[in-house]
Amino acid sequence: VNFTVRILGTSSAHPNANRFPTSHILNIYGKYILIDCGEGTQIQLRKFKIPFGHINHIFISHLHGDHFFGLFGLLSTYELLHRGSDLHLYAPVQLRDMLFSPQSPVKVKELPYKIWFHPLRKGHNLVMEDKNFFVESFELDHRIPTWGFIVKEKKRKPNVIKSKIEEYSLGIEEILAVKRGEDIIRDNGQVIKAKEVTTPAPEPRSYSFVSDTRFFPPVVEHIKGTDLLYHESTFIKKDEDLAAQTYHSTAEQAAMIAKQAGAKQLVIGHFSARYKDTSVFLDEAGKVFKNTVLAYDGLKLEIPLRKISSEE
Ligand SMILES: [Zn+2]
Which residues keep their CB under 5 angstroms from ion ligand 1? Predict the structure, then answer.
């Protein structure tokens, strides 16, 4: 039931001695997915002991260098490591042209592993589905085509109460039936209600990644009720005009989106290197949305299990 996010980089485009550019690694039920891959992502993965080879899905929000310049290095490293398993890339279609061109620094055809390229599309789309979770993409408002992602846990089946298994000597078939919500009728006429012997599963959790974007309220509908929202916050309020001009958000704007979306928690990052003291970001966001945390490189956030859903 693991659902954690490790933020590997929190700076924006200008090099920063204490921060790497954007990259997030998620661990969901032991599966790793990488969202964005700025320069230095490999170093950060090593530093935080994330097993490289266990990453099979990489999502790239847009093709600004601070979000994907680390990808070519990582793909090359996989070659050095003799990776054999398939790798799935979800990214703007232009990356496919770069990667698969004869000039590409990575000779895709000679790699010991296969790359499946999934171009991101307009609108809100399901882009990846796993046994336990799925990922959807939606568009943002940046200088070039840019996508956000929401990673959602699937609804789990109800839990069977241990003492009830013993009390009724429930067999495997019967356990599976009550997990599906079916009542049991035994040959002797005995009826065992599914509701009596199970407790509902916790509500599914979600993580939303809102990459570079101008203040963009339409994003709210895509991330409604999310447990943890990452929203870029490049500028502070006094530079609001600059934020709009460069298609970025301020801390306050990120908080407004979190509030409108009914998020449980907000984490902000992608800070401009012009600010020495990032506590201003927290002050400004915190005034609008109290449960805000300031990202730093290496920050690990756990998305806790939600309360058990009430019975319908
Ligand atoms: Zn950008």
Answer: 64, 212
